[in-house]
Amino acid sequence: MSNAPVHNIDVPAFAADPYADLTTIREGTGAAFVPQLNATLFCRRETIHREEKRVDLFSSRQPEGLMVKLMGENMLRKDGEEHASDRKITFPSYSPRTVRDHWSERFRAKTQEALDALAPQGGCCLVRDFAMRVCGEALRDVTGLYDLSWQEVDATSQAMIDGVANYHGDPALESKALAAVARINQAVERQLDDLPEYSLLKVQLDSGMDVGPAAGNIRLAISGGQNEPRDAIAGAVWALLTHPEQLQMIRDGQATWKDAFEEFNRWQSPVGMVPRGVTRDEEVEGVQLSKGDRVFFMYSAANRDPRVFDAPVVFDITRNNSPSLAFGAGPHFCAGAAVSRELVSQVALPMLFERFPNIRLEGDVRFHGWAFRGPVEVKVRW
Questions:
Q1: Range of the domain at 202
Q2: pLDDT grade, residue 317 (50/70/90)?
Q3: For the CA atoms of 255, 258, 264, 265, what is the dihedral angle to 10 degrees?
């Protein structure tokens, strides 16, 4: 068992705002064992950047982990050649070239439809009425699962995300996650006779992959490919509207929408952590780990590490975000990063602000989550 210093948390308070606890751990010994999560949390950026790549020690393969138990095997829970093979097979669907030449115009068309529907309303909740729809429609295209509505894409994604972050064992969350998995499996079966070009389902089956593993990677794509860009869209709008001078910099051409997207992802870290299983006894950063221990690499803490980022709690779109771990590091760097960057920074944000140049916030905004974090609602008027 890990001999890291023990740090107790209040789970609901940690979900509401994890940063005070994470700062205490990071600025103390850098790592701590949290009994409520049964895991050792590593919180310093350089440690995580280095150790996450050591998959021989910190394995992604966790057959007893929540993701595998609820969602089945997928490329995120593989290492080495198995992981590399799945990435190579799925790459034609996610590649920057495919995103540019095939997906981008589809993203724009669906986003335009969403904006046209919202315009007469004079306001909306950006999370529910805009970001959910834009991301859900994009995932229908990328995965090829047109049997799912965009509302179902969001609902199944959220159910699976809640399930894999259910370290406190809520049976209702587990049940919802399993129902979401079943619904996606049903959609895969219904799509087999009509495989859309460049879709994740098509490129996998064309490679010779069996339906079961292909469906596992689609479930992974939906679980991560919906909530993260959804939260980044709504959250980045909130960040810019609460920092109007930085919004003006973008409008004046002194910064870009991509700058805002990358800075929001660093600042709020929609993906707050990645779990790993320890494969052997070893000491890391003064912490003695034992085979079978569970480790969480806390991206959210790393992305606010003052050893790397000046004034890290400040939202600043002019900063250099190349050290950010928002999309991970090493062999498990987010496979869908190009899709997310295009959808959020080149489509959703610029089109929203162009359509509604006088958009303004209405009411307070509350964030929630520590493993996955985003705004609960962002109400706006125009």
A1: 11-381
A2: very high
A3: -150
